[in-house]
């Protein structure tokens, strides 16, 4: 009897791997799901890396607004690379297991990126507020030092909080069921598998989340309230349209990001419902953001056209023409 109890306890506490259940019933459509996700991943990488290249190599894009946009694109690349490669490997091999270390690493990276993006979107909102409401002071307020300080603070806050949360989670015991009902290691699904009391970790996460996500959200809302008020005071229709065009793409991105984030983490819905709404901000948003910014931003579109013309011209110039090379010998 003692051996049986010991073996049961050992089986419950010696969990070294989790099983990611993935997309549930959608796994039946694996032959369609895999190519769709790999296409999304390729488009995400291409679109975001292209924006970074444009911002780096185009001198007229060397402004705070486009510096933040390049940083957002880097975040989106990291977002997708944190989640999608593992999902694709699971679909391809059928091996849905993930080690505890791998799970906590994914959770840490994903959590950091979410918090940093909250800060970055709020700073981008404030940047648009200064550009529209205080244009004469823009160069003074949004200088290089301020930009670097904003980015440093966002990363320091994010990593500090996630180090504490993930360290506490790594000390938990996981027993019984080891299946995570999600396609990646998210906070709540992982905590549900613990056989310890996780109330203190959940409470700490709520407190830290309030300090780290609520202020950027309030700053974003306040900035856009001031921006819209300032735009409505512009007498001419053309002036209002021009002013709104400078921030409309960012407003769309902010709405999608915070909208899905609130549905997933604030509303008391089922796990299946939360999993469905996790797809937009973890998989689709990183792919769509470059399209939103490029299609609605005149300067980005012009830079893209210029780059394409340069590439086409370079290819034409370096194309190998047999007639041009051997023409003299043929005619002679």
From TrEMBL:
SUPFAM superfamilies on file: Family A G protein-coupled receptor-like (SSF81321)
PROSITE patterns given in the database record: G_PROTEIN_RECEP_F1_1, G_PROTEIN_RECEP_F1_2
Signal peptide (UniProt feature, chain positions): none
The keyword Transcription regulation is assigned to this record: no
GO molecular function: G protein-coupled receptor activity; odorant binding; olfactory receptor activity
Family: Belongs to the G-protein coupled receptor 1 family.
Protein name: Olfactory receptor
UniProt source species: Anolis carolinensis
Lineage per the UniProt record: Eukaryota, Metazoa, Chordata, Craniata, Vertebrata
